[in-house]
Amino acid sequence: MTAKATMSKLLPHAKIIPHRSSQRGHSNHGWLDSYHTFSFADYYDPKFQHFGSLRVLNEDRVAAKTGFPTHSHRDAEIFSYVLSGELTHRDSMVKKGQEGKDAGGKDDFSRMKRGDVQFTTGGSGIAHSEQNESPEWVHFLQIWALPWAKGLTPRYHTRTFSEAEKRKGFVPILSPLKAGPKATAADEKAAVATITDSIPIHADLVMGAGIISVDKRFKWTVGSEDGNAIRSKTGRQVYIHLPMTKNGSAKIRLAGREDAVLSEGDGAFVSDVNAGDVLSIESIGEAEAEVVVLDSD
After folding, report:
1. Which residues partner with 129 through β-bridges?
2. Which of 78, 130, 146, 216 could pair with 120 as two cysteines, CB 3.0-4.6 Å apart?
3. Contact 132, 65 (CB under 8 A)
4. Residues contacting residue 155 through CB under 8 Å, at least 6 positions apart
5. In whole numbers, what is the pLDDT of the chain averaged over residues?
């Protein structure tokens, strides 16, 4: 039996539907060039509202010396994954009218570069800004998830994830808060994630990222390799995204399927999978592929 034939039998029960880059919403405001996987702002498609807890996946490029001025968020888990350039985050958790002023904490200001992830729990309400104060464009993913409860205490986390580790396999970026939906104030302050060294999120969602060399293959274990990291074990919904980082030269194949080959900007909805299932992701283009996995209930 050939290797290709063996690959074709991986996850035969999984339903994999590619979501082409051309299917995404697109808005170009000059200073902001944004692609929307799900309905967002002026883009609306009833077929693409959310996928499990995953609500927003925008691939944004922001011009130098511009950005998003101070704006509010509530009851959403929001995270930025920087692909290139520099993104400066400032926030305020003070009274209305005082947005943008330093609230005195170490997490009130963060200048992020490639490899950094900044995470926000909007909860009962926060205001923040995201600016490109550098002389070059910044390219990043802005992702939102639906939290398991409303009115949570707003919080921020910023962490750098090793490029070298991403080249060895998928690195856990986010995982559920270990204390779960019944977390106490002390649990929230401790902010312990179910997967060590990942950022805690108030959702049954695991995010991973990897950089796959040409002709190499990584494996993603649905629900993470630690089966205790997630609450929902069956019917997981996994979204795979291939960002536009290599001028169209990167390409991946999912589960050995020729009808599940993704080019840059494409994604794929993977459903009918359960915790412990293993999804194969091969890099088959002319350049290495940076792949983001969002594994949700």
Report:
1. 90
2. 78
3. yes
4. 107, 120, 121, 123, 188, 191
5. 90
